[in-house]
Predict the structure of Nucleotide-sugar transporter.
Amino acid sequence: MEYRRIKDQDKIGDPVNEDIESLRGKPILDVAAPYDKTKWKMKSVVTLALTFLTSSQAILIVWSKRAGRYEYSVTTANFLVEALKCALSLVALGRIWRTEGVTDDNRLSTTVDEVSVYPIPAALYLVKNLLQYYIFAYVDAPGYQILKNLNIISTGVLYRIILKKKLSEIQWAAFILLCAGCTTAQLNPSSDHVLQTPFLGWMMAIVMALLSGFAGVYTEAIIKKRPSRNINVQNFWLYVFGMAFNLIAILVQDFDAVVNKGFFHGYSPITVLMIINHALSGIAVSMVMKYADNIVKVYSTSVAMLLTAVVSVFLFNFHLSLAFFLGSTVVSVSIYLHSIGKLQR
Amino acid sequence: MEYRRIKDQDKIGDPVNEDIESLRGKPILDVAAPYDKTKWKMKSVVTLALTFLTSSQAILIVWSKRAGRYEYSVTTANFLVEALKCALSLVALGRIWRTEGVTDDNRLSTTVDEVSVYPIPAALYLVKNLLQYYIFAYVDAPGYQILKNLNIISTGVLYRIILKKKLSEIQWAAFILLCAGCTTAQLNPSSDHVLQTPFLGWMMAIVMALLSGFAGVYTEAIIKKRPSRNINVQNFWLYVFGMAFNLIAILVQDFDAVVNKGFFHGYSPITVLMIINHALSGIAVSMVMKYADNIVKVYSTSVAMLLTAVVSVFLFNFHLSLAFFLGSTVVSVSIYLHSIGKLQR
């Protein structure tokens, strides 16, 4: 299978992973070495960017819902997100070519061997998005929000199995707490309906969590496969296939609407803001995959979820529930345990 | 203050604490030494007994509520619980005197110096029980159940301050999780009312948690002060003062009812069962204080709370909520972290 090939190449020589691995045995002070410091800084910046973008994303969604119902086609918006990401990657590449010149690492042209794995994450997301339409026959929207927390567990398990990276016992405990804490924070009086989800609904939720986790972990494998390769080139190819698969989604789901009403029907300034935000978040996710990993991504988006709720108190007069406080406490302890679990292994 | 005196004596020579301390530096295999094995066994037996008795206690309460309203006076029942504990301690002592003879460690007679601290836990519980009548002006009964989880934190903090015993970072994290997990497991759609508790209600809840935590930690200090002293003698003196303070409670609160309707008015077979159960649980708590500590007690009663809910599904057709599953998960992870936290310090 494809991901086996990626891993085998990883073993032969992967400077980034080797750097990470070599840190484990070292005393803590060594982390402050100049190269590691830059890497740590990069990791922090992209993680904070992802947290900020994800929470503002959620706030834009609440805002757009308050402004009225979705009238634009979601598939065309998704296509534009991929197109914008592609364009931004090209702009960044252009600047790099001007300052550093074209090298083997930042040239756009590629080999079939390199590019052959790039469509896979986009294809997995497409299947997941299509399944999303069917799961609502079994679960309501708030219930689906709860079930989406299964992503946390599936990401952890697939990260361990596919990328063969070990988490310490304490970090596994922290990961279970992250899932339980996020779910607790989202509890509302009607959440118990989720327990009545029929068997097929559970199966679909689990399959979707696995698809989503697999796509995330696979993207990390692709990006980390060639650590010296410029991230903008890697992003460009990921997003080209993202555009292609979203074009398929438009044809399958919204072809008539687009032909009759036009591609941009129902777009408002807030839709444009959401597209820009999604594009930037997507690039931040790629950056986190390059300079950190899926575990950091999961923590970052979980913290974003809690931040969103706190910000919504001021913006939309939301009330925070007791469950939210309890869930946030558990998530905070989870983050603390994840960080001390690293040092103690 | 009294507890200072106890601690100072602890420092001079406390075989039990010294044994515990000396374990820390030793390799794990040493724990299996014959003496420690017996102690570990004793610790497990008393902990399991406390867990079993506490959960059956809660089940008896649900059962008695279903059978009808409380008609008996709670103060007379509390007095009988203390009297029964006293009697059981004397029976146990009688057996020991027959087999081992009367020694300095198991003789009932005592000095003013030894006995002077024994009334304090009983007095603290009396004040706490009196406050309990007033807090219901600010919080409803389910809300009070939620606020009672503050006991977990107060016990941990006072255990650290008064007994000067250290918990590792991971064990502190585990303790916060235990509190959050227990509260989450008890959440119901109306729990959010707790957040509207007025300031005075919060203050009373915190004072009650401190009183209850202080009484527990102080009892441990008294019992561990003289490790060679027979636990039944220590219990006898604790319960004698328990009887005395409950007699005061009868006089203050229920004097008229007892004079007019009689001491045993409204007692049913289930009341008798509850008194027996409370007496046995009380003795189990003392045993846990002697052979383990307040931290074990808190874990034991928290697990009992979860067990009660599971058993109630079968006995009373209770439904378990999603919050219960999430809370139980957090409590389970907390127990795991507490146990690995011990080894890693």
